[in-house]
Known about the structure:
This protein is an alpha/beta fold. It has helices spanning 17-23, 49-56, 71-84, 95-104, 121-133, 146-152, 175-184, 234-248, 254-264, 267-285, 303-309, 324-334, 364-370, 386-399; strands spanning 88-92, 112-116, 137-141, 157-163, 188-192, 210-214, 228-232, 291-293, 316-320, 339-340, 350-352, 376-380. β2 (112-116), α5 and β3 (137-141) form a beta-alpha-beta unit.
Amino acid sequence: xxxxxxxxxxxxxxxxxxxxxxRGGTWRSEHGETSExxxxxxxxxxxxxxxVAARFAGDEQGMTYSRLQNPTVAMLEExxxxxxxxxxxxxxxxxxxxMTTALLCQLSVGDHxxxxxxxxxxxxxxxxxLLPRFGIETTVVDGRDLKAWEEAIRPNTKxxxxxxxxxxxxxxxxxxxxxDIAKAHGITTVVDNAFCTSVIQKPMDFGADIVAYSxxxxxxxxxxxxxxxxxxxxxxxxxxxxxxxxxxGPNLSPFNAWVVHKGLETLELRARRQSENSLAVxxxxxxxxxxxxxxxxxxxxxxxxxxxxxxxxxxxxxxxLDGGREQAMAFLNALELVDISNNIxxxxxxxCHPASTTHFxxxxxxxxxxxxxxxxxxxxxxxxxxxDLIADMEQALTQVGL
Length: 402
């Protein structure tokens, strides 16, 4: 297999994102295949004992074991790095393995992490439960409040961890402002960008150090496989993250990497259409619900900030019904076209009740603190015609008395 595409590889970083999404990081074998090859192998053979020794020592390039390198996986890593504008990327088995790896690879006992309180339930579980078990101190703050971040800094603070927009409250973090604070104090920023991907928002353009993903979501985009990714500098990925990942093994399977490859080819098209559909649906139901949390609507309290750092609004928003869990559950049960599901980023429209699903593992007190109330519903708008989606949402709202 030759690591070539027929193009000057030095020019790939100059391509536009749409070109990188289709062509970036493609290797071809002697067969000249057009689609990325799928290498289902756990190990590799070598021409001599000296060669394998040189590869393990890092003195010679080449594959050694698929927990460390695999051609299909390596192509995906190169493509995601190009799209992100990052020096390097490593992919993981799931989005949560990406978040866990990005944090644990750089934190030790006695270190301190500050995190935004509004976050995906499993991310809050890491902050509230896992990290403290290993002697890592944690503090949660209102991610929207830059002063709160700065006041939480201690001499041992090593990492700021947050997502924007936040899941499911759609809080927006000021990327530029927070990254400037972090850099002034020598703190590393880790941004969960799964709600957006690089076609909607590029945290590194605003100074972020590390960007982590559930590639299960928009990147793959059709609800088929699980995947995660962490992007950063070559020094961080190769010297800090790679030793942790090599020895703990949260690696992505070649098949799942290949499926994500196929998803990336249409990522920008899907993200753009789903954002347009999301805006149409949000506008249609805005005046029928108690509150809507949609970064693309002027009613969002951080609308201008969202507009300044997001290229489009994305497919996901939340809304609140005054009738609490009972009314929220009745609404879900009344849906006919939209599926009840806790996934996001899918080409299909999906809706869920966060308090009983994605944030079930978070304490009731923490849910209340972050604003995940019993009447909240989170929806991922897909590629269906918005006319049909609006009709389904409206009939469900009517059935629950709204």
